[in-house]
Amino acid sequence: DLSLLNRDESKVILVDDNPKSFRKHRANALPVKPFKGEPSDRSLKLLAELLVSLRHAELSDVRDVIQTYIGVEDAGEEFQRRREEMAKQQQLMMQQQQQQQQQQQQREESNGGGKKKRGWFW
């Protein structure tokens, strides 16, 4: 029960691998997969990265972000998936901007640099 902590619940994050343990405080809960002792398990590392990013975001209420993780099995892995997706989208946007700049440059070059020549006509 988070109310026993005597803390502002808008600043409290509950992390657990058992959904029953955060049944009363779902709005504050980030789910993780149970640790099975596998050396390749990176859930804790990814979760730490998520928590650090939440800390740096200086949110007025962490529950606003936590609600976007409702229904996921592992918040750290979902954070990584979202981060990779965002990186792909940013890369695509940069490529599109470069293409637009190249097209604009080609149009200007085909129009004589986009400048009208002034002077004598023969």
UniProtKB/TrEMBL annotation:
Its main location: mitochondrion. Residues 1-54 form the FCP1 homology domain. It comes from the Eukaryota. It comes from Salpingoeca rosetta (strain ATCC 50818 / BSB-021). Residues 89-105 have a biased composition (Low complexity). It is found in: Mitochondrion inner membrane. GO terms for cellular component: TIM23 mitochondrial import inner membrane translocase complex. GO terms for biological process: protein transport. Keywords: Mitochondrion, Protein transport, Transit peptide, Translocation, Transport. Essential component of the TIM23 complex, a complex that mediates the translocation of transit peptide-containing proteins across the mitochondrial inner membrane. Belongs to the TIM50 family. It is a single-pass membrane protein. This is Mitochondrial import inner membrane translocase subunit TIM50. Gene3D superfamilies: HAD superfamily/HAD-like. Component of the TIM23 complex. SUPFAM superfamilies: HAD-like. InterPro entries: FCP1_dom, HAD-like_sf, HAD_sf, TIM50. Pfam families: NIF.
